Queue: 2 jobs
Job 1
Amino acid sequence: GQQVQQSPASLVLQEGENAELQCNFSSTATRLQWFYQRPGGSLVSLLYNPSGTKHTGRLTSTTVTKERRSSLHISSSQTTDSGTYFCAVGYKLTFGTGTSLLVDP
Amino acid sequence: AQTIHQWPVAEIKAVGSPLSLGCTIKGKSSPNLYWYWQATGGTLQQLFYSITVGQVESVVQLNLSASRPKDDQFILSTEKLLLSHSGFYLCAWSLTGQNTLYFGAGTRLSVL
């Protein structure tokens, strides 16, 4: 089955810094979605991006399907960006291991 | 607008007791419905999915069962809870032909 690894496992930034989150998967996929989960909360859909580059607000996702990888770039991070970021890949949307982001003021 | 409602918000249950968690989707007919489980600090694991009333596919065996008695309702249950059932249960929906997945607020379950 699909294996999804995310890196880094955790990341600490100062407010205003940029973040780059990586998602690598074992099989080519036609579905890929990025989610955000605040501590103790549910998941919020950020971007659906199975290929190419997509933007929304301060978020940019780039997926290179042939290389089985996707990235999520967060620009000018804010304390409210703190939480865990997941990518989910493939027909069954297998979830990755997550990246825990802490943005300090 | 579509809304997804999960109940209860939280449960504290004893080992060996029964459990029933519910999920209701309003605003769209024939959604694809999913149950996910998340251990504390862990990733999400898909448990069940359903593309139509009365049909449920099991993805992972965790001594749980699921049913879809109505188009807009998805139920997760077990007759005997285990300690390992503790965690965060999330219901999600998508539409056939539209690939984005949307989650409910979740139910936090503690089994003691």
Note: The mean pLDDT of chain B is 93.
Job 2
Amino acid sequence: GQQVMQIPQYQHVQEGEDFTTYCNSSTTLSNIQWYKQRPGGHPVFLIQLVKSGEVKKQKRLTFQFGEAKKNSSLHITATQTTDVGTYFCAGKGTQGGSEKLVFGKGTKLTVNP
Amino acid sequence: DTAVSQTPKYLVTQMGNDKSIKCEQNLGHDTMYWYKQDSKKFLKIMFSYNNKELIINETVPNRFSPKSPDKAHLNLHINSLELGDSAVYFCASSSGQGGSYTFGSGTRLTVV
């Protein structure tokens, strides 16, 4: 079945450093979504990418969708302590059928002030 | 106004008991889900309902039984609870194909 791999599993940075998490799918995706889960909280939707090669920005966050629609990345510039949390990518396959997102295992980001 | 609400927030119970978790969404979404998040934070889908119809049933023990009385509600009943059932259970909803998911705040289940 469809698998979504995400690396790294953990990332610790100093405040002000950049951070990137990568997501790879075993199959071509129709779209990819990114979520953030704060410690003790629930996943919150950040963004959705649909088009091949798409790049979207949200303030210090930059999201990319690969040309082959099998990989994606999230880059945070100049991290802040408010960026702490686990970032999940979630991919939806292109073969239709039941609607479900397959989540990556997440990247846990900690930021040292 | 809470978009996706789950109750209870915490649930501590003994092995062998039966318990239920309730979920309600006021977003008008057609599809609702149950996810299990283990201690390693891995989010795994369990069930999905679309307009009260079961459309996804992953490999989950028969002790877990979802029920959707209407498209705004999706409950989860668990029989004969086991230690390994301890996890955070998230309810979520979406508006349709490719739509983003809105998650509830989760139910932390601890089986002792």
Note: The mean pLDDT of chain B is 92.
